[in-house]
């Protein structure tokens, strides 16, 4: 076997950045919908590019497996020629996977740095605290005027709903008061851990009206499967009306 046989794989390495960059407009979302959130805008093309690169590598690997099966089958009783080693081939099959992983790693770090970036407060429209506990969620809306915050606390029997204003950047402060939980909105392609004693922050913009499932994706105890919530993306007017309703309920409860 000679090094030229590996030219298709070398071509894959060269094409990987192109595939990752242009995949968004050429293939389906592969399970995710485009334009739902600002996170999707960053991660969807990476997701597609990784699948394309994986598919190309899989096809090349399958060809390399089937080639000797069909073209190097035993033809007679002569003992086959023995080859001790081939330095160019060994360098190639070591270097090519390294380059593929390096390219994917570069694009992953690039997108991740944009997703987890925290903006100045002046560039954020709304602030919500998310507290995970066994076994549900508490959402504290910090833009409730003089009332400081409006709070919604769920239970396993009655999972809470997280309201988000369409097209408005929201910063989430994530905490837990018992064990590790995972704040996960699958459709938004985002998750971050709620850690006891550690505060994490995450911000993004929900762009499409609708209702989306949310859940905990960290095994946190016996009723982990019941740690559900719903994300409802509404217009800004509907969001403000919802917050005003929460404040009115809490004022009535205090009175």
* N/C terminus separation: 84 Å
Count of distinct strands: 10
Low-pLDDT sequence parts: 1-25
CATH class category of the largest domain: Mainly Beta
From the spread of the alpha carbons, the general shape counts as elongated
**Known CATH architecture of the largest domain:** Sandwich
Helix proportion: 25-40%
Quote the beta fraction.
15-25%
* Main pleated-sheet profile: 5 strands, mixed
DSSP helical segment count: 4
Number of domains: 2
Radius of gyration: 25 Å
Taken in chain order, the helices and strands follow as HHHEEEEEEEEEEH
Written description of the protein model:
One of its GO terms (cellular component) is membrane. It is a multi-pass membrane protein. The chain crosses the membrane at residues 49-70, 91-109. With 255 residues, the protein is an alpha+beta fold. The protein has two domains: 3-115, no CATH class; 121-254, Cupredoxins -  blue copper proteins (Immunoglobulin-like). Helix content is 38%, strand content 24%. It is built from four helices and ten strands. A five-stranded mixed sheet has the order 3-2-1-5-8. The chain has a five-stranded mixed sheet with strand order 4-10-9-6-7, with helices on one face. Helix 2 packs antiparallel against helix 3 (87-115). The longest helix is centred in the first third of the chain and has 34 residues, at 38-71. Mean pLDDT is 84; it is low at 1-25.
